[in-house]
Structures are given as structure tokens and as C-alpha cells.
Amino acid sequence: MKKEIEKIVKDFTKKIATAKDLENLRNLEIFFLGRKGLLPLLLRKIPTLDKDQRAESGKIGNQARQNLQKQIEDKRNQLQKKENKKDFFDITLPGKKFLTGRKHPISQMITEIENVFARLGFQLISGPEIEDDWHNFEALNFPPHHPAREMQDTFFIKNLPGYVLRTQTSNMQIRHMENNKPPFKIVSPGKTFRKDSDATHSPMFHQFECLLIDKDVSLANLKWVMQTALRQLLRKKIDLRFRLSFFPFTEPSLEVDATCVKCWGKKSTCRMCKGTGWLEVGGAGMVHPNVLKNCKIDPQKWNGFAFGCGIERIIMLRYEVDDLRLFFNNDLRFLEQFH
Q1: Which residues, at least 6 apart from 198, have a Cβ–Cβ distance to it below 8 Å?
Q2: Are 79 and 121 members of one domain?
Q3: What is the dihedral of CA 254, 259, 265, 271, to 10 degrees?
Q4: Would 91 be classed as within a structural domain?
Q5: Is there a domain that residue 92 lies in?
């Protein structure tokens, strides 16, 4: 038994030297000296020894117990001194800077969009990002096999036929018109998905779309609402121009350009507008009669306009950012610049 006790003491001495904190020391104490520790379990065997061995084994065992307890006490004092040094606080030192979180620039812009259009009397709506074919395409005047569907590189849902990741937030126009009676004014910001990826496109990006349905609505109403909103969002007194285009869900359809916010049309060498003096900001148009019919709204009685803009595009124009991917790279050096 003497050799077994000496081995326990040797192992303990080796392990206590590597104890780094009080918790580690407590675990060692339990393992070697606890109620079911190595040394107590061994000493319980003394009564089973021969009579001439009991006294010697008991003496050696008690000495070993005292030795281990002394090492534990010395080590505990040593570790507590280190802990006390860590807790020392020098009141003459300058305060520590606490880093606080902030909204992502896209979230900030979505909040601004909601506030701007609320002041213009628009209702905020939101809805599903996984959408069925009817709401994402067909009700918006994209019949099956229509060539215009090829304009949008769509993500289809595997094992869920007829569903896609929505390619625009226009699906919310259909959902609102199906369940509400005109007149109404709505704005719908949110995520959209297309298979594009470069400096100005991302597979996931954000849009906001506006819809106004009423009586005797004209392009003049469209231009005023869009220009008023964009002036507030871009924080610049821009002007707009319309160019004829094609979208299945509007007629007439328009591409909308804003005055170049960098050169204001005064520099032929401007890299942002390439010397044209104009920057594309979105698409717009008067709601197509077929879209109204699909939602059981009489196009002889009601009409309206719709327009949409990329949210990242608005931020890029306001702050002259030239790469959309910066918003998704999670580089704090870039994101911290937006307050």
C-alpha cells in the first residue's frame, strides 16, 4: 500500500503544478481527496491489511493526506493573489470604449422609405417571399410561356412545383388588390431574388414598390409622387425624366431617370452618369387593365400607377457607392460609415 500512496502523491503533485485557476484546483481536490477520491478510497482498505501493516499504512496515509491538503492550500493562496491583481481597477485610467450595434444601411433606408410614404398617405404592406406563379407572374400579365418571363432569371423551388422565390415585390400589389376595394395607396418594401451577381446586381436584393388605384389617375400624379419621395430619400433636389419601355403589368411602361447627383449634368466626363447627366432609378407605368381585371377591379371605373426602385440602388446614389456587394460583405469598416 505504501507504493500506491506514494504514486497518488506523485500524480497529485504533478497535476496541481498545472492548475490555472480556482475551479481547476477544486476539481483536483475532489478527484484526489473527495469522499470518493483516490486517496480516501485507498485508505479504506487499511482494516483489511495484516495487523503488522495497518499501523504503518495508517501513518503514511495520514501524512499523505496532510501533504496534499498543504499543497492545495498553498496553491489556492497563489491563485487568489493572481485573481486579486486582475480585479484591480485604476480610477486614473481613461474609460473603455463600448462598441454598440446599429442598423444596417439597408434597414435604415427601409425605415426611411416607410416614413416618407406614410407622410404621403401610403399604407405599408408585406407578404411572402416564396410565391406562387399566379401572384408572381400570371396575375401581373405574364401568361405561361410569355417571352417577358425570360427577362427575369428566376429561382424555382425544388419539390414545390409552381412556386418561386419572388422576382419582384409586385406580388403584393396583386395580393392587396384581391382582398381590398379601391381606392387605395400602398407601398411594399422587401427582399427579391434573381440569378444575377456582379458589381450592381445580387442574387438577393431589396425593392420597394408603390401602387395607387383611384379614379382619373394620370402620369402627372405618378411623377409628382415619385419625384417627391425620391427627393427626400436621396436628400437632393433631383428632377425626373420618363423613357418609354415595356413591362407586362403596366401600359404605358416607363424607365425613370433622375438627375445625376454627382455632376448634375454639367460634366461630360462624369463616371457615374457617363456624361449623360441622368441616372436610372427604377421602372414605372400606369397599371395594365388586364392586371385590374385579374383582381376583379373594373378598369372602366378605376385606374392607377405603379412604380418600383431598388433599395440598394437608392443608397448607392445617395452615398456614391459603386459596388452593391459591399452591403453584404459584412465589412464593419464600410458599414460603420452609415449613421
Answers
A1: none
A2: no
A3: -90
A4: no
A5: no
| Residue carrying the nine cell digits 438577393 | 204
C-alpha cell at 191: 427582399
Total number of domains in the chain: 2
For the record, the C-alpha cell of 133 comes out as 406563379
Residues 63 and 125 in one domain: no
Q: What is the dihedral of CA 229, 231, 235, 238, to 10 degrees?
A: 160
With contact defined as beta carbons under 8 Å apart, do 139 and 172 qualify? no
pLDDT, one tens digit per residue, over 174-195 is: 999 999 999 999 999 999 998 7
- Residues in CB range of 39: below 8 A, 6 or more apart: 5, 8, 32, 33, 61, 64, 65, 68
Kindly report, residue by residue over 31-80, the tens digit of the pLDDT. 888 878 887 787 787 777 777 777 777 788 788 888 888 888 988 888 88
| Cα–Cα dist 157/96, whole Å | 49
Which H helix or E strand runs over 245? strand 240-245
CA-closest candidate to residue 152, choices 109, 112, 205, 113: 205
Other C-beta atoms closer than 10 Å to the C-beta of 324 total: 19
Q: Which residue has the cell 463600448?
A: 98
Answer whether 0.85 is exceeded by the pTM.
no
